[in-house]
Amino acid sequence: MTSVAAPLLASRPSEFRLRDGTRVLVRPIRAEDRDRLQVGLHQLSAASRYQRFHAAVSELSPQQLRELSEIDHVNHLAWIALDPTLPEQPAVGVARCIRLPQEPRTAEVAVTVLDAYQGRGLGTLLLGLLSQTAAAQDIRTFRAYVLEDNEAMLRIFRDLGAHVGRLDVGEYQLDIPVPEDPGRLPDTPTGRVFKAVAARARREAAGV
Ligand SMILES: CC(C)(COP(=O)(O)OP(=O)(O)OC[C@H]1O[C@@H](n2cnc3c(N)ncnc32)[C@H](O)[C@@H]1OP(=O)(O)O)[C@@H](O)C(=O)NCCC(=O)NCCS
What we know:
CATH topology: Aminopeptidase
CATH architecture: 3-Layer(aba) Sandwich
Structural class: alpha+beta
Distance between the termini: 20 Å
Bound molecules: coenzyme A
Radius of gyration: 16 Å
């Protein structure tokens, strides 16, 4: 792992402010987040659940919850955002990627943000954090399956230079380069968030 990504993986959560000033705590996901994932799924609108799973998922089994929260952060990486203003600090967003065994430098990626928190830059922030730790694990490409009407997700991935292929009716397969040096990303909204995340990681690595 590179020295830049290591502090981001530290157990202490980092606080970020979203575009509208909303505070969130972000950290790599842990086993204790199992219940947060189920509660979060229940709070997600049916439309968002469909965009995420491409199916009408309304409940995760105990085994699925374990698989999504007890992860190695090498082949399966995930970041969770919590709302620090509420007593239980519920999950408000997750970005995860899982390495493909047959293409070990590629990982399937998915991002989910609760409807009430969408459109404030949280999805971009979580993906920026995930990119840093994925790059440190030698993951070079994110692969995503995105429904064609998912403007927000397509916007973020296109900003990152995604190669977009039509997979099936209504669905795209995207291959997104994981930025090795976010500083060289173009000056888009996504590029700016990724640069800010990288700058924060550098500051924390330097102990500033
Ligand atoms: C897709 C998703 C993760 C994006 O998260 P988010 O926090 O809302 O995204 P951001 O606020 O970072 O916005 C990303 C960009 O999309 C744009 N955007 C947001 N909602 C949009 C919409 N409905 N239509 C068009 N563009 C939209 C934003 O304006 C932003 O661009 P900008 O930075 O230039 O303004 C979130 O909407 C979500 O969880 N959707 C349901 C699950 C899902 O679709 N997951 C993807 C599976 S791969």
